[in-house]
Design brief:
Length: 231
């Protein structure tokens, strides 16, 4: 079976306002709840683990308890870095979870189709990530702000979540990262370090991460378009 971990314990600095952006409402529903509901519609996903700041555990448990349509869930406390939050979530994995998905709670527009494709690829290859082709030209720069090199855009992807892995691979990658004090910016980078193969699953440009205030409007526009209400 598949279990999914949702890091939602960040400080939402770029959103501002001093509140957890994952609890802001998008089309009348907290972002975290919308994300968990979408994963709950995927048949193979059987268990959800939300990771939040210590002072928000009760609030989030109340939101989830009162919601309909959720698979079995647990809430746990996060850490100072996203990677530490996920490491805490890993401690709550059910024994029979063979595939682990990690998904930013702040990506509420994820489609069930991408989730299914990431699960398929993780089962087949051991690791898989959702991503889209890079739209912008990306350059490597030096510390003084000069361009060093321009990698060909056709070889570049912008990486999203979900990222999915066979259980033993992800657990080994997290153990090794802890031993070596390696801090990565995504989960796949921890698996890459131990030689794991990662398959890229082409996702959608609408799977944005709610990061700054205008992203709420962008996400609501995507939702209206999806429901055929665009004007
Ligand atoms: N996250 C987490 N624990 C942390 C940091 C981040 O669980 N210590 C979560 C966030 O809550 C978010 C996801 O990881 O759902 C992606 O992180 P990001 O978008 O950077 O969120 P924040 O770190 O909260 O935002 P900012 O960087 O603007 O402070
Ligand atoms: Mg952050």
């Amino acid at each position: 079976m598949v279990a999914a971990i949702f890091p939602a314990a960040g400080s939402s600095k770029r959103m501002g306002g001093g509140v957890n952006k994952n609890l802001l409402e998008l089309a009348g529903e907290p972002i975290l709840l919308r994300t968990l509901k979408t994963f709950s519609r995927v048949a193979r996903v059987k268990f959800l683990i939300a990771v939040v700041a210590a002072h928000e555990v009760e609030t989030v448990e109340k939101i989830l308890r009162e919601a309909d349509g959720l698979k079995p869930w647990r809430v746990t406390v996060g850490g100072s870095e996203r990677q530490y939050s996920i490491a805490n979530g890993l401690k709550l994995l059910p024994e029979d979870a063979e595939i682990i998905l990690v998904h930013d709670a702040a990506r509420p527009l994820i489609s069930t189709r991408t989730i299914d494709e990431v699960i398929d690829a993780a089962e087949k290859f051991g690791g898989a990530i959702a991503a889209v082709p890079a739209k912008d030209t990306i350059k490597l720069v030096d510390a003084a702000g000069f361009v060093r090199y321009t990698p060909p855009r056709a070889e570049l992807i912008a990486v999203q979540t979900p990222q999915g892995f066979r259980r033993e691979i992800l657990l080994r990658a997290y153990e090794r990262a802890a031993e070596e004090k390696f801090l990565g910016t995504d989960d796949a980078s921890l698996v890459e370090r131990i030689g794991g193969r990662i398959k890229v699953v082409t996702s959608s440009y609408s799977n944005i991460k709610i990061t700054t205030p205008e992203d709420i409007n962008v996400a609501e526009t995507f939702l209206r378009v999806e429901h055929g209400q665009a004007t």
